[in-house]
Amino acid sequence: MLLEKDIDLVLLDMDGTLLDLHYDSYFWMELVPEQYANIHRTSLEQATEIVFSECKKVSGTLSWYCYDYWTNTLGLDIHQLQHQCKDKIQWREDTLWFLKTLKELNKKIVILTNAHPSGIKLKDQQTQLLSYVDLVISSHEIGHAKESQGFWSAVKKQLNTDFSRSVFIDDSEKILVAAESAGVEHLMGINKPDSKKPAQLMQGFSSICQFNEFF
Ligand SMILES: [Mg+2]
């Protein structure tokens, strides 16, 4: 695939693709269990177990990504709590360069994310992310997670495209599979979504660590 020649529409995941997943990993795996333990007076071990088992129940569904769902389920104000570690919200290494290059090449840039609108707002405040793209579509507006075909048929309609001149980049192999089923012509994985964790090779898709490998 040649970006200059074969692609008009670039579809991009946000967390773990454009932004360092470290913020989200830290937030959900450390800060949320810690706060749960404080508020509900349990040990950190117990709190971690409860949070993880609740996560398992809704993995891959819209609830998994919904701050209102977690605020109710865990009795913690997730909308407030997300601000506590907002200094960890960072671009991945060469994202800004990539977004500017895409703009110079006159590509249409659309973020497709499972992030809750409240999280998108905070991440935009920290990075001005939205000023670099044409549009953001959150699965919460559509009512289906990116893992589901309902999401992709709604996006297809909204963008008025058949995805034949599109590339979609995401750090989740499961979501790449869903995009492939929906007919997105070109797919690419991110194999180092979290700067603090080792790279993860993808089984079924080509994957890159930095965007400059794309060219
Ligand atoms: Mg992601």
UniProtKB/TrEMBL annotation:
The keyword Hydrolase applies. It holds the Pfam family Hydrolase. Keywords: Hydrolase. It is an enzyme of class 3 (hydrolase). It comes from the Bacteria. GO terms for molecular function: 5'-nucleotidase activity. Its EC number is 3.1.3.5. PANTHER family: ALPHA-D-GLUCOSE 1-PHOSPHATE PHOSPHATASE, FLAVIN MONONUCLEOTIDE HYDROLASE 1, CHLOROPLATIC. NCBIfam families: HAD-SF-IA-v3, PRK14988.1. This is GMP/IMP nucleotidase. It comes from Psychromonas arctica. The gene is yrfG.
